[in-house]
Specification:
662 residues, alpha/beta, two-stranded antiparallel ribbon, 11 strands
């Protein structure tokens, strides 16, 4: 229709057509304006983003994937509240990518040009050795063909950076480094004269002696640093991983149940403390506290706060980053997927890790591993006392640990006896809305006089409140003034609903001044701790530092997503499994990004965290309209622009669902 959004099929459309400017039809704009004028104010208005009438349509824009008609209006995917209720908060039966068969994967030894050490064994190698067969069945690169992401052509991150891609024929961007006649992997080298040559990485090892050697026969072990992750820090060594998995790590701190058992065997004798004093195996270092004042700190964010996302945040000016919450129980078992949450990129110059546990010995034992492991570098360790999930709280961890002060004290003492870095404490206001306890807990920790507590981070909501309603900044200010002057003061960082520079000024800077007006103790410091605000507006650090509301264009946001895609392929690999994983994490992020309404479309600036956009918004271009969509199908369309076409049976359901966006 003339003047309306250009119709785009579900498959990927060219960038030029997607970025074409568009305006809403005059009739739709007139109708929207009239309906707005006639409508009486509703109590819900304060929770709805005030958008200029010309951008609000009466029907779904035609450039979006059209939804199937439904008898109810329960959500974006046509499901009613009753249908969703049983699965709420449990992520049951979420769509997963199908597993790739071993026969469809190339043997990495063959990819490297070596002889497979398992080829002549009784069981044989379960991976494919026939490169020509794999070449014949190899799908075209994700940058080629119909619906391909042509911007990725020649963009294999490992070939560009290192001159060698370890995925070889399995690489979905591999045409630049695959011999298309034989399927062999190529390597780019520079000779003594400085000339660049491209050839095979090394000749095939045919010697029986070499094939039977222990070095050639050694299987890659968990924790091995992959070539495409050589720049990544905080990768646990394979020796430590194996010791943890086999339960043979030489811990000094005993488990709580071992001590209880010992106390029963020695009746009449005093039971030893739960946490024993330990000394790090590494040489003692001076503990350096982190100065959070006037910094932008990206809080730990489950699932979406991954390493590629944090690289994006560093690009936009974040000063301090922290890894996703990791569970001590899984870390102490050597679980690779849990240790992956502690990985650090070289650009993260000030980096912390957040851990959760329900017992002091778990915290202390993990501290021993971190202190003794030379490959692990963290600037601070954050204790999670705020996670509201039942799965975590039922184990005595997360927000439940706020109610167990003996466990908390033993945990702090045990860790800070071992660690060379400070420990911060992230907490909520309390368990119940009307019974806040953070001010009592803060004073008690202060009285314990434990050296090395770097800061308190206070989220202005209770555990039962989770993320509903606004954060209580009045209480955060009260807590900031409640520490005793008789003991060492510990900085307090407030957290909750920072979504613009105006929010930072109103909720943090003014409350910092207010807290120090009476001349008493003031521990609330000016630090912009960003959570959901960073997920929805990753450029928020730039806005805060430059004191402006940035009307970022759809093209600039697309470039940001391209950077995330490249970072994701570097982190998770350029084979099909890596592409799938990058797409899933991209879609999880898009489930937050669509909540942002551009500044130029707003009637009232800035947008507030607890406000949701109206339905059927039409942006200033087709691309902006797609980015505003609440429908998963449109997020998938956006991912196709970045990573190529998805399979016909592909489905996605976001892991983190907000009731206000249903």
């Amino acid at each position: 229709t003339s003047g309306d959004c250009v119709v785009l099929p579900h498959t990927t459309e060219s960038m030029s057509s997607v970025e074409a400017p568009v305006t809403a039809p005059e009739a739709d704009a007139t109708t929207a304006a009239a309906s707005t004028a006639e409508r009486k104010p509703s109590p819900q208005d304060s929770f709805t983003v005030q958008v200029k009438s010309e951008f609000v349509l009466n029907e779904r824009p035609s450039c979006l994937v059209q939804e199937q008609p439904s008898s109810d209006n329960g959500g974006d995917n046509g499901t009613s509240k009753d249908d969703r209720k049983p699965n709420r908060g449990q992520n049951k039966k979420r769509p997963r990518d199908s597993k790739i068969a071993h026969a469809d994967k190339a043997c990495l030894a063959v990819v490297r040009g070596e002889q497979c050490p398992f080829e002549k064994s009784d069981k044989g190698c379960r991976y494919n050795h026939d490169l020509k067969e794999m070449l014949a069945n190899r799908p075209v690169d994700i940058s080629k063909g119909e619906g391909g992401a042509d911007w990725l052509e020649g963009q294999c991150p490992f070939w560009k950076k290192n001159g060698y891609c370890q995925f070889g024929i399995m690489c979905r961007l591999g045409e630049d480094h695959i011999n298309m006649s034989t399927g062999q992997n190529l390597c780019r080298t520079i000779d003594e004269s400085g000339n660049e040559t491209i050839g095979l990485p090394k000749p095939v090892v045919q010697s029986a002696e070499a094939s039977s050697s222990s070095e050639a026969a050694e299987k890659p072990k968990p924790g091995t640093v992959l070539k495409h992750q050589m720049d990544i820090k905080n990768v646990l060594s394979k020796e430590t991983t194996n010791l943890l998995r086999k339960n043979k790590y030489p811990f000094v701190c005993k488990r709580h149940y071992e001590i209880k058992k010992g106390s029963k065997d020695n009746k009449g004798q005093a039971a030893p403390p739960v946490v024993t004093s330990t000394t790090p195996a590494l040489p003692a270092k001076e503990r350096k506290l982190i100065d959070f004042r006037d910094k932008v700190y990206v809080a730990p964010l489950t699932t979406v706060g991954n390493l590629p996302f944090r690289r994006i945040m560093k690009h936009y000016g974040a000063d301090i980053t922290c890894g996703e919450m990791a569970l001590c129980e899984q870390l102490l078992k050597g679980q690779p997927s849990e240790w992956a949450l502690l990985k650090r990129h070289p650009s993260e110059d000030c980096f912390g890790v957040q851990i959760a546990a329900g017992h002091a010995d778990q915290f202390t034992r993990l501290a021993e591993v971190l202190a003794n492991e030379e490959s692990i570098e963290v600037d601070f360790l954050d204790m999670n006392l705020g996670c509201p999930l039942d799965l975590v709280c039922n184990k005595g961890a997360g927000a439940c640990l706020m109610l167990r002060e003996k466990k908390l004290r033993a945990s702090l003492e045990g860790m800070l006896t071992v660690l060379n870095c400070p420990v911060t404490v992230k907490m909520r206001t309390g368990w119940k809305d009307k019974e806040p306890i953070a001010h009592h807990l803060q004073r008690n920790i202060q009285k314990w006089n434990i050296d090395g507590v770097g800061a308190f981070m206070l989220h202005g909501r209770s555990r039962l409140q989770r993320y509903s309603r606004s954060a209580n900044w009045d209480y955060i200010t009260e807590v900031g003034c409640s520490q005793s002057s008789e003991f060492n003061n510990i900085p307090l960082i407030g957290n909750g609903d920072i979504f613009s520079y105006s929010d930072y000024e109103e909720k943090i800077l003014k409350n910092v001044e207010k807290c120090g007006e009476d001349g008493g103790v003031n521990n609330l410091i000016p630090c912009a701790m960003l959570g959901r605000g960073a997920l929805i507006k990753p450029w928020l650090p730039t806005e805060i530092k430059e004191r402006r509301d940035w009307d970022i264009s759809a093209t600039e946001r697309l470039d940001m997503l391209k950077d995330f895609t490249k970072f994701g392929l570097e982190q998770w690999g350029s084979d099909q499994q890596g592409v799938n994983r990058t797409r899933r994490f991209l879609l999880e992020w898009l489930s937050f990004l669509h909540r942002y309404v551009p500044v130029g479309m707003l009637e009232v600036v800035p947008q507030q965290m607890n406000q949701r956009p109206p339905n059927d918004l039409c942006g200033r271009s087709d691309l902006e309209t797609i980015m505003l969509s609440k429908n998963c199908a449109d997020w998938i369309k956006l991912s196709e622009m970045l990573l190529g076409k998805v399979p016909d049976d592909f489905q996605f359901e976001p892991k983190h669902k907000a009731n206000s966006y249903k």
